[in-house]
Specification:
UDP N-Acetylglucosamine Acyltransferase, domain 1; mainly beta; 6-stranded parallel β-sheet
Length: 181
């Protein structure tokens, strides 16, 4: 990794960040070990971003909204995911968009938490205030507007549970990997 003038809050070992990745407020971004962030990814530091260990963020993904993002260990974003940690207030009692002075806007800042071993398929959209439980899988093109139960497979717009996802094999392989280190 060769990124001049980017000062993260913290950055681990074996981190691969492709050269066409864009960070705003990198001083609010913590990156763990064994992380890969592909080209054409944009991550807004907002209120804080914490990326765990063994995390992959694929090309054309975007983290924005000015709130907080937590991606726990072994989680991942497939290509084109959109994670919104905040939004403008569309209720009609304020103006919207970042070109408007803040005194005329009422942005809502929140969080998104993506649990350990969770994976989001291509072009998934996650709206503010959502926790995706440990081991959850979200199918391509889904829109997530509510919390997702751990170890479930989900898809749709809006997203809905399709079935349970078995945890035993994944957790056993995690332990094998960590024991090798």
């Amino acid at each position: 990794m060769e990124r001049q003038n980017v000062q993260f809050k913290s950055i681990g070992k074996n981190v691969q960040i492709f050269p066409l990745t864009v960070f705003t407020n990198p001083e609010r971004i913590s990156i763990g070990n064994n992380v890969r962030i592909d080209d054409f990814v944009m991550i807004m530091g907002g209120l804080g971003v914490r990326i765990g260990n063994y995390v992959h963020i694929a090309c054309f993904s975007n983290v924005g909204g000015g709130g907080e993002l937590i991606m726990e260990d072994f989680s991942g974003l497939s290509a084109g995911c959109r994670i919104y940690t905040g939004t403008d207030n569309f209720g009609g009692n304020s103006l919207t968009n970042p070109t408007i002075p803040l005194k005329f806007r009422k942005p809502i800042r929140s969080f998104v938490k993506i649990g350990k071993h969770s994976i989001l398929g291509t072009n998934v959209v996650v709206l503010p205030g959502v926790t995706i439980g440990e081991g959850a899988a979200i199918g391509a093109g889904s829109v997530v507007m509510q919390d997702i139960e751990p170890w479930t497979i989900n898809a749709g717009n809006p997203v809905r549970v399709l079935k349970k996802r078995p945890s035993e094999t994944i957790l056993r392989m995690e332990q094998e990997l960590l024991n090798k280190k």
